[in-house]
Amino acid sequence: MVADERERPDVKRRRDRWQRHQGRIDPTRLVFIDETWVKTNMAPLRGWAPKGERLPGAAPFGHWNTSTFIAALRHDRIDAPWVFDGPVNGEAFRTYVERVLVPTLRPGDVVVMDNLGSHKSQAVRQAIRAAGAHLLFLPPYSPDLNPCMVGSCMARVL
């Protein structure tokens, strides 16, 4: 399934433009950013057991936590990994960019992110630009254009 919003004329235009221009960027300069998370209350809700028998299972009770993993994917490696307790928000993402990502950036790198609200703060933009890197946002409804999707590099790391 994909978001049917991808077929809206404005989104389709932005996706087409991205795909036309992505070949002009030196792939060794691309730095794709993404995050994923795990919650301790993510327990299976269903399963199989012999008819008439209960399915045994265990899950944490009452102390549910979220851990977030953010990293950058370059053409040859995963870079700037960071794990922290709690969900990603503007403050946590700014801290990641300033303290973890920026020290790994070189002038001319092109940082690519999706359109999550916490990615778009002025402080994040300024920190990336101050490192001499460029910042690009993927078109809306376009996780397929980020090779660092949760189902790919992030899941392998976790």
Question: Would you kindly provide a written description of the structure presented here, covering whatever features stand out?
Answer:
With 158 residues, the protein is α/β, with parallel strands linked by helices. It has helices at 9-21, 90-101, 122-130, 150-157; strands at residues 30-39, 66-73, 78-85, 110-113, 134-137. Helix content is 27%, strand content 22%. Residues 150-158 have low confidence and may be disordered. It has a domain at 29-39 and 64-157: Ribonuclease H-like superfamily/Ribonuclease H (Nucleotidyltransferase, domain 5). α2 packs parallel to α3. The protein contains four helices and five strands; from the N terminus they run αβββαβαβα. The two termini are 24 Å apart. It has a five-stranded mixed sheet, with helices on both faces. The chain is globular and about 60 Å long. This is DDE superfamily endonuclease. Keywords: Endonuclease, Hydrolase, Nuclease. InterPro entries: RNaseH_sf, Tc1-like_DDE_dom, Transpos_IS630-like.
